[in-house]
Amino acid sequence: MTEALRLVIDRKCPYCRRQVYSEREAKEILYGSPIRSCQCGKDYLDIRYHEIALTGIEPESLEIRQNVLILFFIIPIMLATVLAFIQNLPKLTAFLLLEILMLITAVRDMIQKKNGTKFKHLRAESENRLRNPEYVQRLQAAGYAIPGRMK
Ligand SMILES: [Zn+2]
């Protein structure tokens, strides 16, 4: 019989009471194994971590509001930089390149959220973990619903 893992209590390891994450990090949505290891050597359960192949991706993680917000800020600043640049201010080259980089990053992140590639790697990692029957048993003992094909 696999021993049931204990859940984090008040952001602390349920075994040694060491703080494992800060209050600011408490609402984070993370992807990976919910079974974490404490410095005390014990494993505990941290449900901020989502095992994608079991519980899927949280809608919040696919939200593009933040990307759109970045574009709203960066595009006018970029246009202003371009105008200044045309008026012969080549000192702004580095600034302009930085803005272009931010623009590309925001757009790429948005596309990856929309076409599903953003979580492809994490999903593959999750599926790999779930190929280990011992790992699946530990999750099941912790209360996770495991589809029949994974048992
Ligand atoms: Zn501990």
Task: Describe the structure in your own words.
The chain has 151 residues and is mainly α. The protein folds into two domains: 1-51 and 132-151, no CATH class; 61-115. The chain has helices at residues 52-55, 65-86, 93-115, 120-129, 133-141; strands at 30-31, 35-37, 43-45, 49-50. It starts with 29 loop residues before the first strand and ends in a 10-residue tail after the last helix. Residues 13, 15-16, 18, 38, 40, 42 line the site of zinc ion.
What would you say about this model in short?
The chain contains five helices and four strands, in the order E-E-E-E-H-H-H-H-H. With 151 residues, the protein is mainly alpha-helical.
Short key terms for the protein model shown above:
151 residues, binds zinc ion, two-stranded parallel sheet, two-stranded antiparallel ribbon, 5 helices, 2 domains, mainly alpha
Shape: elongated
Q: Assign the structural class, choosing from mainly alpha, mainly beta, alpha/beta, alpha+beta, or little secondary structure.
A: mainly alpha
Bound chemical compounds: zinc ion
| Percent helix range | 40-55%
Using only CA atoms, what is the Rg? 22 Å
Total domain modules = 2
The biggest beta sheet is recorded as: 2 strands, parallel
How large is the share of residues in beta strands?
5-15%
Strand order of the largest sheet: 1-4
Number of helical elements: 5
- How far apart the termini lie comes to 15 Å
Which residues form runs of ≥5 with pLDDT under 50? none
Instruction: Estimate the mean pLDDT confidence.
Output: 90
